Here is the input.
Amino acid sequence: MKEREAVRALNALAQDSRLAAYRLLVQAGDAGLAVGEIGDRLKVPAPTLTAHLNVLRHAGLVRDQREGRVIRCRADYAQMNALLAFLTENCCAGDARTCAPVAACAPSVRKKPTRSTQR
Here is the structure.
């Protein structure tokens, strides 16, 4: 990723509603979310949401697909991973002890408590 692309992506994420929309799409996985569903979840008016999604699209962070009358948005994971790689390139002056490797898409998994941990 080039610096100009990174600045565009970071600028796109530097707003509360856009960051929230992007995080929803990242959490939704490859299935993505319909634009209306994003608006409902975030309580953002349709015209405002459209403007926010356009900024995310322009930054390459979001892609969409028309499915009949519905527009489904998805996070572009390749672009997300490229941004993370750009940000962590040459991290920590090369000291591996200080800077653990970045797992770009490592979902946190909540383990259910077992009988032994419940006591």
